[in-house]
User: What shape does this take?
Amino acid sequence: MEFLMVLIIVVVLCLILNISLSYILTGILILAGVGAVFFAVSFLYCFVMLLCSKKKVARFVRIGPAKGDRFQVAFYLVEGVECPCMFPREAVLTDKLYRTDKPCHVMWHPGKGKVFDRYACVTCVLGLAVSVALSVGTMIALIG
Assistant: This one.
């Protein structure tokens, strides 16, 4: 939210200083492109981690903050060890999505000690696809 306010203030100042609207829009497009590339690299890292993970049967245990994180994540019991999920928990329909009464399949990354539940897998794959598409789209818009 603060970033948006700073962006609005900078745009207003540029308009007051009589900077061309095309330069302002080009700058905003470059900023969006850099952001999209950053997200693409982040999701690519997570996707590689997902590919290096092993499929395991797990049981959902609880929702809480992981060590050093401020976000609430789902915790799963994998081979007797409680492992946090790689991405924050889903906030909608928590009681329906995370069920303690039956086991589920997760992708466990032994090096990190974290898991990808099915929602994290979908987030990783869709996030990578969308961020790459946005990166390519902004680059095409800047070139053309």
User: Anything to note?
Assistant: Strands lie at 54-65, 72-78, 81-84, 104-109, 114-116.
